[in-house]
Amino acid sequence: MDEEKIKILVVDDDSFVREMLASILESYDYDVDTAENGLEALKLADSSPDIDLIISDMNMPEMGGLELIEELRGAELEVPIIMLTGNDEISTAIEAMKIGANDYLLKDENIQETIPISAEKVLEKHQLKMQNIQLMKDLEQKNKELARMVFVDGLTGITNRRYFDNTSYTEWGRAAREGAPISIIMIDIDYFKFYNDTYGHQDGDDCLKEVARALDDALERSGDFVSRYGGEEFVAVLPNTDLAGAMVVAENMKANVSDLKLKHESSKVSDHVTISLGVGSISPSRRSEPSDLILEVDKALYKAKQNGRNRIEIIEEEA
Predict the structure, then answer these.
(1) Judging by beta carbons within 10 Å of its beta carbon (0-12, 13-18, 19+), is residue 318 exposed, middle or buried?
(2) 181-217: per-residue pLDDT in tens?
(3) Which of the residues 40, 89, 171, 232 is marked catalytic?
(4) Please, what CATH class does the domain formed by 7-141 belong to?
(5) Does the structural domain 161-314 have CATH classification 3.40.50.80?
């Protein structure tokens, strides 16, 4: 299949100049279209996004070269532009370069040699520019993906311990500044070791994924998040949420996991997978740290396990 030709739009109100330039460029195997003025060129550029280069005269009726540049750049069209000018219009040509032209050429006896050289140079520079822009976009996207990988648990797809450690400090500081409450819920899958022993690690991994999804579905606001804390343990952070609000989320988490109906014949509390939860809420001071609350919530989780599992235990704000 033949390579698609580069398309050039020649804009000039003089028909002789248009035809001459088109003939020169076509001899270099360019695909050439023409327009009589800037307004006609603008319409063609809007309807033909495949135009690779515009070569335009400076002074034309209805819309001149400077207005054409301003309109094209205002519409964020990246097509490169070469301006054609006479000897007495050099200062105007420089102004055209300032507002977005890529090069300018004198209309003189050398035009037959200079115009293909300028076209090739401008097209090459534009191609390099667009390649660099795409490279930067690709790099930005890859950096975002890498950042996401750093903070996402590879098995469950929710955020990981590192994300929890970083973000909990940020939310804690915001709560301290605003005098707002913050709540933490710690969650543990009941008798998960027995589950793995009974059904195997593959089913165990599937169980972790299902539970993680159920916990995440229980969150009510965009600022809330749940992370895999380690093994079969999860932790949720609920900014600007008091104990009553946290208990609602905890109850929903417990219900969501129960509704999964994941068979667990080795459990000592149910015939399906259940969770134990510890819940705490506090309005932090500037001198405190998230670890202060985490320690107490972990104690509440331990208490839930000691008291029979498949239950929620809380700490009071004074803890």
Answers:
(1) exposed
(2) 999 999 999 999 999 999 999 999 999 999 999 999 9
(3) 232
(4) alpha beta
(5) no
